[in-house]
Amino acid sequence: MGGSEYICLVFIRKKKNRTGSISVHITQKVKGKQVHIKTVGHTTDAKKLIRLEAQAHHEIEKIKQQYTLAFPFTEDEKHLAHLKTSIQSIQPLACIRILENLFDEIGFSAIPDNLFKHLVIMRLLYPVSKLKTVEYLNRHYQIQYDIDGVYRYMDKLNKKYQEQLQHISFNHTRKLLGGDLSVVFYDVTTLYFEAEREDDLRKMGFSKDGKAQNPQIVLGLLVSADGYPLAYEMFEGNKFEGKTMLPVIEAFKKRYALKNLVIIADAGLLSNENIQQLINNQYEFILGARIKNETEAIIKQILTLQLKDGQSAVIKKPNGLSLIVSYAASRAAKDEYNRKRGLQKLENSLTTGKLNKQHINNRGYNKYLKLEGEITVTIDYDKYKKDAVWDGLKAYITNTQLPKKTIIENYKNLWQIEKAFRISKTDLRVRHIYHRLEKRIKSHLNIAFCSYKLYKELERQLKEKKLSISPEKAIAVMKSIYSVNTILPASKKEASVLIVNDEQQQMLLQAFNIQF
Fold this sequence. Notes:
By secondary structure, this protein is α+β, with helices and mostly antiparallel strands. Helix content is 43%, strand content 20%. It has helices at 46-66, 74-86, 93-106, 114-125, 130-141, 147-176, 245-255, 272-280, 296-303, 329-351, 381-386, 404-412, 415-425, 438-464, 471-479, 503-511, and strands spanning 9-16, 22-30, 33-43, 87-91, 183-192, 216-223, 229-236, 262-265, 284-288, 312-316, 322-327, 369-372, 376-379, 393-398, 482-487, 494-499. Strands 7-6-5-8-9-14-11-10 form an eight-stranded mixed β-sheet, sandwiched between helices. A three-stranded antiparallel β-sheet has the order 1-2-3. It has a three-stranded antiparallel β-sheet with strand order 4-15-16. Helix 1 runs parallel beside helix 15 (471-479), helix 4 crosses helix 14 (438-464) and helix 6 packs across helix 14 (438-464). The longest helix is centred in the N-terminal third of the chain and has 30 residues, at 147-176.
C-alpha cells in the first residue's frame, strides 16, 4: 500500500514563440502544478507540426508505461492483476482497418500477398527502411516477417506486379473521373542516394534536390486532372528530363489504347525537339513557355500588349502553334519581390568578396553579374531594371483549339503533380532509398506509387464525407485510436474494444464505418 496515491497526468502543450514558430512540449500535472518534461520540437510548418504532435503522443505512451502505481485498496490491486493477465495486446488497429478498406476498394487486394499490403500501408503510417518496417510490424501488430524474406520479395515484386498495379490504379481513377482521361500532366524529379560511386543506373546529373555531388535517378510521373497517379518510369540519373516525356506518354497511351490526349507539362520540358515530336505523334499539348527566349518579333508583340490584371492575349506562331500570354498583378508583385531579394543577395556576396568570374552565368540572378576589366565582378543594374517589364507575365505554348481561359486553367492544375512529388518526398519519404540493386529500387518506387494512390483515395473520401481535415491529420488521429484485446473474465472469450477518447476519433470511425 506504499507509494504515490495520486495519478500523474501527462499531456501535450503547444506554445507560440516570438519568432512565429510553435513549440510542442510534454507536460506533467502533479498535484495541480504543471511540470515541464520535454520539448519535442518547434516549427512554422503545419505538416511538420502534425508530425511533432504524433511524436509527442508516442513519447507520452512510453512515459506512462514507466509509472508504477500503488493502490491503497485490495480490490484495486486485484483488478490490476486481472488486467495484466486478461489484456492480450494493445494495438493502433483503427488506422490499419481504414486503410485496408481503401486498399481493397482501389482494387490492390488483387495482389494476394499480405506482405505487399503491409508494405504499402506502412509507407503511409511509418515511412522508414524495410528493416525498421519489419520491426515496427512485429512490435506494434505482432505481424512477423523475416527481413531476408522481405528483400527476396522485393527482388520479384516489380517484375511480377508493376504492370498489374498501374492497371488497377488506372481503372480506379478512370472510374472516379467518369471515363474522362483526355488531359494528363507530366513532370520529372530526381531522387538522390547516400552513395559515393555511380553505376549503370545511379549517375551524377542535374539535381532538383541540390545534391549534385550524389548519384541519383530521374523519376517521370504522369497524373490525372485531380492529381491521381497514372504511370511512372525510372531513368538514369544523367538523363535529360526533356528526353523522358515521350517514352512515358507513348507507353501509357499504348497500354490503355487511348486515342486523344492533351499533355500538360512545365517549361523545363520545353524544347523545339520535344514540341516537334509531340506534333509528329499527333498529341495536343499545353506547355509552359519561356517568353524571354522567343524571337525578337514575338518579344516585341508581347511587350506592346499592355495587359492589365487578369487579362490575356493570343499570339500566333508558325506550325499552327499559339502563345497565350497572361498578366496577374499578384504575380507581378511576387516577381518584383524575388528580383529585389536576388539583387540583395548578389550585393551582399559582392561586399564579402564571395563572387568571382566563375559566378558569371545565367543561373538565377547571376544573370545580373558582369565582368569589368579582367578581374572585377560588378552588378549590371541596367539589366536588372530592364527585367521589370516581365514582371507579372506568364506564357503557355499550345497547339490545341481550346479557349485561352481553358488553356490557362488547365495549366494551373500542374500544381497537382508538384504536390505529388512533395508528398512522396516528405510524407511517404520515398527518399532515402536504402537499396542498391535496380530491381529493388524499382520495387521501392512501386510501393511508393501505390501508397500515393492510397493517400489520394483517403484525401478524396475525406472530402466526399465532408470531413474538413487533411489526410496527414486524419492519419495522425487514426494512429491515436487503440484497440485493446482482452479475455472476458466470465466466458473466457476473447474480445476487442476500441478506446475512443475524443470527437475527432469518433467522427473518423463513424465516417469510415468502423464499429466501436
